[in-house]
Amino acid sequence: MIKAEIVYTDKQLESLRVKGHAETAEYGKDLVCAGVSAVVVGALNALEDEDNFDISIEEGDVKVDVKGTLSEHDVIVFEILIIQLKTIKMSHPKAIDIKERKSKQ
Question: Which long-range contacts (CB under 8 A, 24 or more apart) does 45-48 make?
Fold first, then answer.
């Protein structure tokens, strides 16, 4: 299962993590994994101010930590990414789990 965790402060996105595999088909042929990978990497490529983020991408694990205040452009990029992940979940609810929470800080 792919697990996405989205953490917010009171004002904005604080971090995003997407990890795991959908396991809806054999490795290398899993369209759910391919879809999630495409929307996540596409969103990260669309960020306006990449210096404002700590980004780690490894096979099956993407971590994004926000270091400062997000531009309006980057807020929209993350909003669209989250909508895309939720859309994939609607079609494949057993393949992806999405948790959104407020920061403990």
Answer: 46/77, 47/74, 47/77, 48/73, 48/74, 48/77
**8 A C-beta contact, residue 57 and residue 40:** no
Q: What is the pLDDT of residues 26-80, one digit of tens each?
A: 888 999 999 999 999 999 999 999 899 999 999 889 999 999 999 999 999 999 9
The C-alpha R_g of the chain, in whole angstroms, comes to 13
CA 6 → CA 55, 91, 95, distances in Å? 14, 20, 17
Nearest one of 49, 45, 70 to 57, comparing CA atoms: 45
Q: What is the pTM of this model?
A: 0.92
- The one-letter amino acid code at 50 reads E
CB 97 within 8 A of CB 2: yes
